[in-house]
Amino acid sequence: MTEMYPIFLKLEARPVLVVGAGKVAWRKAEALLAAGAELTVVAPQVCPELNQLADSFTLHRREWQPSDCDGALLVIAATGDSKINARIRECARKAGALVNAVDDPPNCDFYLPAVARVGELRVAVSTQGKAPLIAGQLRRFLEQNLPGELAELVELISAEREKVLASDMSEEERIKYLKAFLAAELEKRDLQL
């Protein structure tokens, strides 16, 4: 398998389609809404959890149609049917969208990583679609073991970085200064990265 390219996407106000409306689709929809995506869900039946969020997105209670992919940046196929997922992928690709077919790697253009969160810090874990259970375990391990102080440190370094970027320092001077600043803050907190 070719190496995958990791990326964090800004999805605010970007069109995303989810096909399917079960528990898996609900979890995907929650994450997409948190990212600010302009979400559309297409499914004949909707689970209660997703139905509670229905005011936050466009919902079409019907079977998926190829034209549903038109204009989407991303498509999440959460149908549980690899034949339908393959058709969704084909139509999405024609429309210029990337597809993630849940638990169906042959019909995926990308995989969604397990993401550990500590404040604004995000650590994404992927097994390239081969063992999502391991990625999930590692995510939980990281969330339990990464020091909570990292959230504060991210904010502190971010503020310092903004000041340095506004200065007349050269790029080399900025990098040197920020590395020294980070090292001092880590030492002050007795943290090792």
In short:
This protein is of the alpha/beta class. Helices cover 41% and strands 16% of the residues.
Description:
This protein has helices spanning about 25-35, 50, 80-95, 130-145, 150-165, 170-190; strands at about 15-20, 40, 60, 75, 100, 115-120, 120-125. By secondary structure, it is α/β, with parallel strands linked by helices. It has 3 domains: about 15-110, NAD(P)-binding Rossmann-like Domain (Rossmann fold, 3-Layer(aba) Sandwich); about 115-145, Double Stranded RNA Binding Domain (2-Layer Sandwich); about 150-190.
State the CATH architecture of the largest domain. 3-Layer(aba) Sandwich
Helix run count:
6
Q: Which class do the helix and strand fractions yield?
A: alpha/beta
- Give the overall shape, derived from the CA principal axes: elongated
Query: Any idea how many domains?
Result: 3
**Main sheet?**
5 strands, parallel
Output the CATH topology of the largest domain.
Rossmann fold
Please count the beta strands (DSSP E, at least 2 residues each).
7
Helix and strand sequence: EHEHEEHEEEHHH
- Which percent range describes the beta-strand content? 15-25%
Helix content: 40-55%
- Identify the CATH homologous superfamily of the largest domain: NAD(P)-binding Rossmann-like Domain
**Rg, nearest Å:** 20 Å
| CATH C-level name of the largest domain | Alpha Beta
Low-confidence residue ranges = none
User: Strand sequence of the main sheet, in spatial order?
Assistant: 3-2-1-4-5
Summarize model confidence as the mean pLDDT: 95
Euclidean distance between termini CA atoms: 31 Å
